Amino acid sequence: MDPSSLPPAFFDFACYVALGELKYGPSYAFVSANEIFGWVSALGSDLPARLKRHGSGALPPELARFRTDSVTATANDALAVIRLRVLEESKEAYGTALGYLIELLTTTEFPRTYAIEFRGPTKTYLPIKGLPKKGVHQFFAAAAAYPGLRPALEQYARAAMGEFEWYRNLENEHCAMPGTFAVFALGLADPAFSPLVLEYLRLVDGEHQSVHGKFVEIYVAEHGFTPEAIAYLVACASNIQHLRLPATSRPQVANQASLEALLAAKLELGDDGLFSYTLYAIWGSQLPATGATR
C-alpha cells in the first residue's frame, strides 16, 4: 500500500487508540502506545509529533498551560508528563502547585501513570536514605515543610494512588506509586495521617516496589515499636515479604509495651503465615523463643 493514499482518519483513529492506552490501559500500556505512534510516524504522518508537542487537546486550556506569578505548569496527556516549576519559596506557591495537581487528577482523564518533572528554588529531600533525589521527590519534600499544606498533600495523595500505577520517570529500585512522597512526608510529620499511610502500604504493589520499606525503617528508628510503627511494619512486611530491619532496631522492641503491641497486631492479623514476615523483618533467621510471641 502506498502510505500517501491513506486518509487522515486512518491516522486519527490509530492515535486515538494510542491515547486510550495511555489513559485507560495498564501502567505498561505506554509501550504499546508509543509503538502505535511509531507506526503512524513511519507511514508519513506528523500527528504523533504534534501530539507529543501539544497534547491531545482534550485537557482544558487552563490546565494544559498553567501560569501564575509564582508557578508555571504544563500537562501533556500524549506524553503523560507534567512539567511543574515553582518560582519562589513560599507556602502560597507550593499550595498553588498542589491545587493545580489535584484539579488535574480529579477533573480530567489524565493518565494515571505519569511523570512529574519539577524545578524549584529549594533542593530539599525527605530524611529517608535511599530515596531517589529526583524533582518529584524534591517538590513534595519542599511542600511538606509547610504544615498548613498537609491537607492538600493528603488530598493529592488520595487522588494519585493506584495499585498498579507509577511515576514514569522513576525506575528499577526507585519505582514508586504516585502519591509516594506525599504519603511519606505526612507519615513522618504527624501520626494523625496514619490511616493514609496504612491505606498506602496495603495498596502498593510490593512485587515491583520496595521504597516503602525504607520509610518503615526510618519510622521505626525514630519512634521505636509504637502501635503505629508496628501497624506499618505488618502492612509492609506482608507486602514486600522479604523486608529486613537493621539489627540495631532489635533492642527497641525489647520492652513490655512494644511486645504487647506486637502481640495485639498478631491477634488482629489472625494469620500466622503473614505475621511470620513481620517476625522475620525484626529478627531475621534468629527468631525469639516461641514463648515470647504467644
Helix percentage:
40-55%
Kindly report how far apart the N and C termini lie: 74 Å
Q: Which strand order do you get reading across the main beta sheet? A: 1-2-3-4
Structural class: alpha+beta
N-to-C SSE string, H for helix and E for strand = HHHHEEEHEHHHHHHHHH
| Rg calculated over all Cα atoms | 22 Å
Estimate the strand proportion: 5-15%
- Uncertain segments: 290-294
* Nearest-integer average pLDDT: 92
Tally the helices: what do you get?
Answer: 14
What does the overall shape look like? globular
- The count of β-strands is 4
What's the story with the biggest beta sheet?
4 strands, mixed
Write up what this structure looks like.
By secondary structure, the protein is α+β, with helices and mostly antiparallel strands. It has 14 helices and 4 strands. It has a 4-stranded mixed β-sheet, with helices on both faces. Strand 3, helix 5 and strand 4 form a beta-alpha-beta unit. Helix 8 packs antiparallel against helix 9, helix 9 runs parallel beside helix 11 and helix 11 packs across helix 13. The chain is globular, with a radius of gyration of 22 Å.
